[in-house]
Write a structure and sequence with these properties.
Number of helices: 8
Strand content: 25-35%
Number of strands: 17
Oligomer: single chain
Radius of gyration: 21 Å
Helix content: 10-25%
CATH topology of the largest domain: QueA-like
Order of helices and strands: EEEEEEEEEEHHEHEHEHEHEEHHE
Distance between the termini: 44 Å
CATH architecture of the largest domain: 3-Layer(aba) Sandwich
CATH superfamily of the largest domain: QueA-like
Number of domains: 2
Largest sheet: 9 strands, mixed
CATH class of the largest domain: Alpha Beta
């Protein structure tokens, strides 16, 4: 019997690297656009070391910069069992089908039918309605039509688990892009955290259009890959939207021979989910998983952060830049002590 060898680009182990925990940024920089910027030229593998505020140097008047305008909701909730008082943490992922119902990741042991109390003096109660497996439950707030307003009062920013500190009030805005508009994410599109209003003004002053699309980040983006053949991984669906004005602006850039700069892996997945041919307005869901060999159709350059080992995000940038280029760039970033992950430094792939 002949055993077929799995190509390296499809092996989960190919996307591992020795991330020093000391390089995981725990807080954002006071000046967002002073983050370091590694510029990777994918055709040659050449690397430049710049500052994020230098990004306009790489843009031309006919280009468009496509950003994900999703807004992070304060989706992390502390509660307690009623009766009993045992502490439980919820990470609300998205609204479910029923009134007042949300899908949530639950930390702690709760059974279907368990009542939960939030806030001081049993301000509000919910009940666990269904078990979806893998720690996910359907939780219902009976009689509560606007769960998001409750989150504004009682929720905390859903900082990633590798940020080993408690959220602060400042994180509500720091873990948010300056152009965030559409509520719905449980993680920030972190490549966009480096932009400031002044930097965006400088970009627009060059004639570049800044175009918003939307992907509401849920478990699909950050769910771990556990299969050695990465092609067996399945992404959870996430909500996406491209407006007609965004589609028109991108098509106009194409006609003018401009380039499409995607800010982040989520903006990339929005554009690539639209398929080949003329870009049109759309609203729906995507479970697109990009691995090496994927034929990119709708982006020419990518602004991104430095991603976690074995993550779907690392696989996407490897598909775009070339796996060997990314390995060498990450080795250089580790050597040069770049700051990694959500609050870390940035990379521009040209």
């Amino acid at each position: 019997m002949i055993t077929q060898t799995l190509p390296a680009e499809y092996k989960l182990s190919s996307y591992d690297y020795p991330l020093d925990e000391a390089l995981i940024a725990q807080v954002p920089l006071a000046d967002r656009d002073r983050a370091r910027l590694m510029v990777l030229h994918r055709e040659t593998g050449r690397i430049e070391h710049r500052v994020f505020s230098d990004l306009p140097d790489y843009l031309r008047p006919t280009d468009v910069l496509v950003v994900n305008d999703t807004r992070v909701i304060p989706a992390r909730l502390q509660c307690r069992k009623v009766p009993g008082g045992g502490k439980i943490e919820l990470l609300l992922l998205r609204a479910a089908a029923g009134p007042g119902q949300w899908e949530a990741l639950v930390r702690g042991s709760v059974a279907v039918g368990q009542h939960l109390a939030f806030g001081e003096g049993d301000l509000m109660t919910a009940v666990v309605r269904r078990d979806l497996g893998e720690g996910r439950k359907i939780v219902e707030w009976p009689g509560e039509d606007d769960v998001e307003s409750m989150l504004d009062r009682l929720g905390a920013p859903p900082l990633p688990p590798y940020i080993r500190r408690n959220p602060t009030p400042a994180d509500r805005e720091q873990y948010q892009t300056v152009y965030a508009a559409a509520n719905g994410s449980v993680a920030a599109p972190t490549a966009g955290l480096h932009f400031t209003p002044m930097l965006l003004d400088r970009i627009r002053a060059r004639g570049v259009k800044v175009v918003p699309v939307t992907l509401h980040i849920g478990t699909g983006t950050f769910r771990p890959v556990r299969c050695e053949d990465i092609r067996d991984h399945r992404m959870d669906s996430e909500r996406v939207e491209i407006g007609s004005s965004a589609a028109d602006a991108i098509e106009e850039a194409r006609r003018m021979k401009g380039r499409i700069f995607a800010v982040g892996t989520t903006a990339t997945r929005v554009l690539e989910s639209a398929g080949a041919g003329r870009l049109k307005a759309r609203s729906g869901w995507t479970d697109l998983f990009v691995v090496p060999g994927y034929p990119f159709k709708n982006i020419d350059a990518l602004v991104t952060n430095f991603h976690f080992p074995k993550s779907t995000l690392l696989m996407l940038v490897s598909a775009f830049a070339g796996a060997q280029n990314i390995k060498e760039a990450y080795a250089e970033a580790l050597h040069a002590r770049y700051r990694f992950l959500s609050f870390g430094d940035a990379m521009l792939i040209l």
